[in-house]
């Protein structure tokens, strides 16, 4: 449940919007390439901590 919620939140951050300009889309893709792995590691760490509490 936690991972599903977090992945949905992350997907929303990177979702292209109809009014996005090509520059915005390009910037989001570049940001995701740079920050995506760190964000994914943080997500896994939070999911692991949540699982330990359950």
Can you characterise this structure?
There is one protein chain. The protein is mainly alpha-helical and 54 residues long. The protein is 83% helix and 0% strand. It is built from two helices and no strands. The chain has helices spanning 2-14, 22-53. α1 (2-14) packs antiparallel against α2 (22-53). The protein is elongated, with a radius of gyration of 14 Å. The model has no long low-confidence stretch (mean pLDDT 79).
Tell me the Rg in angstroms: 14 Å
Binned strand content: under 5%
The total of helices stands at 2
Low-confidence segments? none
Q: What is the end-to-end distance?
A: 12 Å
**Order of H and E elements:** HH
Q: Quick gist of this model?
A:
The protein is mainly α.
Give the helix/strand layout.
Elements: H1 2-14, H2 22-53
Helix pairs in contact: 1-2
């Amino acid at each position: 449940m936690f991972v599903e919620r977090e992945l949905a939140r992350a997907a929303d951050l990177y979702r292209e919007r109809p009014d996005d300009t090509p520059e915005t889309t390009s910037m989001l893709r570049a940001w995701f390439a740079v920050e995506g792995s760190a964000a994914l590691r943080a997500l896994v760490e939070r999911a692991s901590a949540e699982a330990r509490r359950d």
